Amino acid sequence: MESLKFRSISILEDFWSWLWQSCTAKNNLALILGLTISWYVWKFKNYSRKNTSPLPPGPRGLPVVGSLPFLNPELHSYFTSLAQTYGPILTLRLGRKFCVVVSSPAVAQEVLKDHDIIFANRDVPDLSKAMEYGGHDIVFTSYGPEWRMLRKVCVREMLGSTTLDDVYALRRREIRKTIKYLHSQSRSPVNVGEQMFLTVLNVIINMLWGGSVQGNERVSLGAEFRQVVGEVTELLGMPNVSDFFPELAWLDLQGIRKNMRQLSMRFDQIFDSIIEQRLRMDKEAVRKDFLQVLLQLKNEGDSKTPLTMIHIKALLMDMLVGGTDTTSNSVEFAMAEMMNKPGVMEKAQQELDRVVGKHDTVEESHIHKLPYLYAVMKEVLRLHPVLPLMVPHSPSDSCIVGSYTIPKGSRVFVNVWAIHRDPTIWENPMDFNPERFLDSKWDYSGSDFRYFPFGSGRRICAGIAMAERMVMLCLASLLHSFNWKLPEGENLDLSEKFGIVLKKRIPLIAIPLQRLSNSELYQ
């Protein structure tokens, strides 16, 4: 490329010298100067076209703002409609940000497998920088030693199978509390998603610092976290002008950074209080929880990649924000889909009766004997993937994908929602049909790019095992313990609300009816 540049300059200088000697009139000089520049630009661009792959196709947009004015808030369905026009890989210019949308298994495989290392980084949103520990968590940390250290700590100390087996009693206790509460509300409407959120939140809090907070303080802390987590996920799903025009970020035109900073302070106050209590406690007097392990790792130190207090807070936030809404929303969608198809709910309950019986309670040891209920969960994750566009990737270098150039630093969305509903891949894709997953070939490994609800590659979700256990145990317990019906005169709504986490637009309000003859099983 450099030699071409020097040859072109040399040719231009010789040509210019000849023109200067040939011209006597100023107007001729101006004309020839214009022709010369045009010739040089055409020559250079012609070479570039021959030797560089083009950018992916996409809407032209407007000057300066690009396609920002045309964005539909329901980004997952909006991107899907654009893909029908521009193909499985397309570009959008949003202000100064170059965005790429991937909507097919073949292109997703190129991004997440073939060029995994290049696309292993994140395009860190501006609002993350408003948090003291933003950008130091598993989600947004750049791929490298720091991220590998965080993921290793998280998986080894909290989300590995051995650890999850050790804390099964926590999951069981919280789910039995929820079943007891629902039994007390028998024949009264309850908010299914809200109850599942509180259940999962209490499980995670117990795993994080269960020995540090007790009694009424734990109840009030759960309520506060539910509010804060909801506000954080809502902010994360909002388009932010500061991301599209970085030079305007200091103005915080939408007030998003200000709101996130306030939420960060609330997180910080809670974390500081919990950490202070943990440091004062006798380490031998309580069960070893995740926070205690993290503080011990911090004190032991690692000269190459040390675990800091900022890392500890970031990991606590990841667990709370990433593990609550995601799990509870999946359970809520599953219950809504089964209520919409009573035959599916009946099959799941019949399976539970065969495996568990009507004179016992559901245990986690039962769930691997429930293939139909597993199929229900997999179908829910197909039709309503937790992260419809995944967490956006960002290439560390320009890369060729699908014969197109993806520029370095682009924001790359993988539209798993569109892939999971592609009629060329799935028969009757809009139909909720668990039977399609009775074939055991479908899993969460991310190796099949027709179905990868938890992502793929280096940035695949670290909490798959935890999510699987929680969703299955919650669903099995709800279906085994109760029959469910809608309040009189209510219609079931299955519509979605887009966000970084996909939610049910209208919460599921349903009435639990005692299903087991022995009321003591609900205690």
Automatic annotation (TrEMBL):
Give the binding site residues for heme: 461
Q: Where do the TM regions start and end?
A: none
**What GO MF annotations does this protein's record show?**
heme binding; iron ion binding; monooxygenase activity; oxidoreductase activity, acting on paired donors, with incorporation or reduction of molecular oxygen
Q: Which domain of life is it from?
A: Eukaryota
Alphabetical UniProt keywords: Heme, Iron, Metal-binding, Monooxygenase, Oxidoreductase
Q: Which cofactor does it need?
A: heme
Pfam families on file: p450
The record's similarity note reads: Belongs to the cytochrome P450 family.
In terms of PANTHER family, this protein maps to: CYTOCHROME P450, FAMILY 706, SUBFAMILY A, POLYPEPTIDE 4, OS08G0547900 PROTEIN
This protein's name: Cytochrome P450
Q: Which species is this UniProt entry from?
A: Nothapodytes nimmoniana
Q: Which gene encodes it?
A: CYP706C81
